[in-house]
Design a protein that fits this description.
139 residues, single chain, five-stranded mixed sheet, alpha+beta
């Protein structure tokens, strides 16, 4: 597209692309990105952790519910992919908190929520400087 993107990848889809095809793409993409980063000197951050880490949410306030996804140290598009994988495992109405320190997560998570018809409840600074994105599953 002729724009510097700091390593981001933009994907455009034809209107006839099926949900199954998108899910397959999202399943394969993290491994492809990891493989490519492994070929670039300094391209794979030390803190990059494979897989989604789920833990029960702490009860620091009445608005914290559901699960917490720790995506700190994971780069675009992994935080939003972590959310996409986890949201199907919680009941409709449940909130998931995504902890992410990648600046791209702000726009990625907001756009994903709009596209997938879930609610981005809030975005706030976490105690360690990362962002905490609270998403409510709506469907």
């Amino acid at each position: 597209m002729g724009a510097l993107s700091s390593g981001n990848v933009r994907v455009s889809l034809h209107p006839e692309v099926t949900d199954a095809a998108v899910e397959r793409f999202l399943t394969v993409l993290p491994a492809v990105i990891d493989e490519v980063r492994g070929q670039i000197p300094g391209g794979r951050p030390e803190a990059l952790r494979p897989g989604v880490e789920l833990a029960a949410a702490t009860t620091e306030g009445p608005t914290v519910q559901g699960t917490v996804i720790d995506s700190r140290g994971r780069r675009c598009p992994l935080p939003v992919l972590d959310l996409a994988r986890a949201i199907g495992g919680v009941p409709v109405g449940t909130q998931i908190t995504v902890l992410a320190d990648d600046p791209a997560a702000a726009s990625d998570i907001a756009a994903w929520c709009r596209m997938r018809q879930h609610e981005l409840v809030s975005s706030s600074e976490h105690e360690d400087g990362a962002r905490a994105y609270r998403v409510r599953r709506l469907r």
